[in-house]
Amino acid sequence: MTAQKVPFIDLKRLEPGLWEQWQEKIKELFHSASFIGGKEVEKLESSIAEDCNSPFAVSCANGTDAIQLALRASGVGKGDTVILPDYTFWATFEAIVNVGADPVTVDINSSDLQMDFDLFCKAVETYQPKAVILVHLYGWGSSRLEEFRLFCEKRGIILIEDGAQSYGVLYQNQSIYSSAQISTISFYPTKILGAAGDGGAVLTSNQKIATRIRCLANHGRKDQYSHDGPGWNSRMDSIQAAYLNLAHEFLPTRIQQRKKAASFYRNYFKKNAELGISCVTPSNHFEENGYVNLLLVPSASRPSWIHSLTQEGIGYGLIYPSTISFQKGATPYLRGKIGGEIAQEMSQRVLSLPLFPYILQKELEQCVSCFI
User: Fold this and answer.
1) The CATH number of the domain where 323 resides is what?
2) Is position 4 within any domain?
C-alpha cells in the first residue's frame, strides 16, 4: 500500500506562532492553578454567544453531553417521545436513550440529506412527540428549516437543533443558531472550532433553561454543597477553553480555507459530470462553513473509488456508512420509524475527500486525480 500522501484531516497544520502561544498559555494556567471554570471559560462562552447571536451560551464537557443537557433542561425524560433524523451520528440517538426517552427516526430528503419535513409532520401526527432533534448535518441545514421552527412553535413541541457540525454556518445571512429555541455545539478536535480534546456547549434564548443547564452540568448544584437534584459532571475544563480561545482568533481564516477547498471539489465534479459523481450542496438559504466535502457516487462504484484512493495514499471518509435504525444497537430502544429507505441508500453512496484548513492546492489536485 502506498504511504499516505494526503490525510483525510490534518490537525497539525496550525497557524505560525499558535504552538508557542499555546505553550505559554499552559504555563500560565498551571502557575495560577486555573483548571476548572474561571476567565478562560467565561471568555469562551462570551465569544460563542456573540458569534451565534444567542443570549446564553453554557459550555460543557462534550457535544453528546450538550444534547443530553438540552433534553433534560427542557423537561424531556422517561416516557417521552423524541423524533430525530435516521441519518446522523450515533450520539444524537444515544442522548435520547440516555435521558430515558423513546426515539423515533424519520427519513431524510435526498436533495440536502437533512430530515424530510413532510415525513416529519407525519411522524408528529403518528407519535405525538414531546421534542424533536433536528440535526444540521454536513455544515449546512434543511432547506425547510423555517418550516420546522414554525411548526414546532405552533404545536408546542420542543425543538432542539443539533449544530455539532454547523459552527460558522449562516442561514438567511445570520448565524444558524440565532433563531433556535435551543441548540448544541461540539468542539471535538475535527470540528470547525475544535479543542485539544473534548468540549461542547448549549445555546438558548431562555434564561431559565440556561440556568438549569449550568446546574445540571455541575452535579445539580445550587451552591457549593446545596443541590437541586441529580446532575452530573459535565464542566468544561480551563485548558480546553483556553485552546478554543486561541483557535477562535483564527476561525474566519480557517472557515475561508475550508470553503475554498469545498468549492474546488464542487467545481471539479461539476465540470466532470461524466464521472457520475455529484457534490451535495446546501440550498441558497445557507452559507456553508466548509465542514466536509460530500460526494454521492454510485453505490456499485464506491468500492473501486475507495480502492483507487487507498492505492494513491489519499484519505477518505464515509459519513455515515449506516442509518440509525439499521444499527443493531438501536433496535431495543426504537419506538418507531418513518421511512428510512432514502437514508440507507445514501449511506451506501456517500464518500468524502480530504478537507481541512491549509490543505494545499496540489493536494486537492492529487485527491481528484484518482477519479480521472
Assistant:
1) 3.90.1150.10
2) no
Q: Are 197 and 266 in the same domain?
A: no
pLDDT tens per residue across span 47-105: 999 999 999 999 999 999 999 999 999 999 999 999 999 999 999 999 999 999 999 99
116 and 226 co-located in one domain: yes
Asked if residues 45 and 201 have their Cβ atoms less than 8 Å apart, the reply is yes
Residues 45 and 159 occupy one common structural domain: yes
- Whether residues 79 and 63 share a domain: the answer is yes
CA 158 to chain centre: 19
Residues 226 and 358 in one domain: no
According to DSSP, residue 8 is labeled S
pTM here is: 0.95
**3-class SS string, 142-160:** CCCHHHHHHHHHHHCCEEE
Q: How many domains does the chain have?
A: 2
What distance in Å separates the CA atoms of residue 321 and residue 343, rounded to the nearest whole number?
Answer: 10
Convert 304-325 to b/e letters by CB count within 10 Å (16 or more is b).
Answer: ebbeebeeeebbbbebbebbbb
Task: For residue range 230-247, list pLDDT tens digits in order.
Answer: 889 999 999 999 999 999
Is 216 within 8 Å of 12 (Cβ atoms)?
no
* Cα gap 100→98, rounded to integer Å: 5
Determine the angle formed by the axes of helices 117-127 and 145-155, rounding to 10 degrees.
20
DSSP reduced 3-state for 131: strand
Helix (H, G, I), strand (E, B), or coil: what is residue 59?
A: strand
Q: Are residues 224 and 239 in the same domain?
A: yes
